[in-house]
Specification:
This protein has 342 residues and is mainly α. Helix content is 75%, strand content 0%. The chain is built from 13 helices and no strands. Helix 8 crosses helix 9. The longest helix has 38 residues. The protein is globular and about 85 Å long.
């Protein structure tokens, strides 16, 4: 029962967080410079046309009335119409989100596959050459902005070596062979039965995903290393070594498991951060995803799209952190959900 109570409190906290986000993004979207109706119709539209569109969008109503209507539509999944694409915002989110989700998931995989082992290697060789080299790499990746890494990758591997394509998700030669089924290009190319298109999709996604993962990878290396060193200095670890347990058993079963809790917390935050970090990478690589759509929405004062993108990012952030809390409480039962003691 205590566990259910913790779960309910955590879910209540999530609902309050999303409600607060809805209020915040509503206020921000209404104070953005520029008239959304004017931006949609263009400079040549008459004042009457602008006023008519503003009335259709409800922008002529008092803010409390606009907020009530905004929440009513939000609960039924109606996010309104995008002023830039003329599509329903919900449709735009469904069509563009898989591209971003595919990109950040591969970037997250790079962070885990390279970051955790490098952190373990650095901790095992604490103070040695491998430790210093790994720390230098970690500090370098954290210090350099991801967009700069992306541009360097484009110049070196795309322009000079010509190993990878510089922009887009798929070469135009394969666009007619692939049928959009899931929105995930790596999956859709397989479902379409085109291995050549599948390989081409991998070539397009590797550089932006790797560039996006660099900053988070450095964080994972540093946290894993410091946690491992801290746990290895504990008395119970020294006692296990004194009992003659094999080094691999002490490291893999006892040290790494206990040191993984801070790393898992950072991984959860990093996955959510990747969603916002993808904004710049998608612009650099002309990646047709949610982040690029969000930037264009802000630049064109497309309030409905701005609200839709922000709410979706907020929901993903809250869900990822909830999943991290669940996994953390499973790994270490002493840590309850939402920081409660078990």
């Amino acid at each position: 029962m205590a566990r259910i109570g913790q779960l309910l409190r955590r879910l209540s906290g999530m609902a309050v967080s999303l409600l607060g986000l809805s209020v915040l993004i509503f206020v921000i979207s209404r104070v953005l410079p520029g008239n959304p109706a004017r931006m949609a119709l263009g400079a040549m539209a008459s004042e009457e046309q602008v006023a008519e569109l503003a009335a259709e969008m409800g922008l002529d109503q008092p803010l409390p009335v606009q907020y009530v209507e905004y929440m009513r539509r939000l609960f039924v999944g109606d996010l309104g119409q995008s002023l830039q694409t003329k599509n329903a915002v919900a449709y735009d989110l469904v069509t563009k989100f898989p591209a971003t989700l595919e990109l950040i998931t591969l970037a997250f995989t790079f962070m885990v596959v390279f970051g955790i082992p490098l952190g373990i290697v650095a901790a095992k060789h604490h103070g040695g050459v491998l430790d210093n080299v790994t720390r230098f790499f970690a500090f370098s990746t954290v210090s350099v902005p991801s967009f700069f890494v992306g541009i360097v990758f484009q110049l070196v591997f795309g322009y000079f070596l010509n190993w990878f394509p510089i922009t887009g998700r798929l070469s135009s030669a394969y666009s007619g062979e692939v049928v959009r089924t899931t929105g995930f290009m790596l999956v859709d190319t397989l479902l379409s039965g085109s291995l050549a298109a599948h390989a081409d999709a991998w070539m397009h996604i590797l550089l932006p995903a790797l560039a996006l993962s660099f900053s988070g990878m450095g964080q994972v290396i540093r946290i894993t290393r410091s946690s491992m060193i801290d746990i290895e200095g504990q008395d119970y670890i020294e006692a296990m070594r004194g009992y003659g347990l094999p080094t691999w058993l002490v490291t893999d079963k006892y040290t790494l498991k206990n040191a993984f809790v801070p790393t898992l917390t950072i991984l959860g935050l990093q996955y959510a951060w990747l969603l916002s970090g993808a904004f710049i990478i998608e612009i650099v690589y002309s990646w047709p995803g949610l982040a690029k759509y969000g930037v264009q929405s802000v630049l064109t004062s497309d309030v409905n799209a701005v609200v839709g993108v922000t709410m979706l990012v907020g929901v993903v952030f809250v869900l990822v952190n909830f999943a991290v809390d669940l996994l953390t409480s499973v790994i270490d039962p002493r840590i309850g959900l939402a920081g409660d003691s078990a």
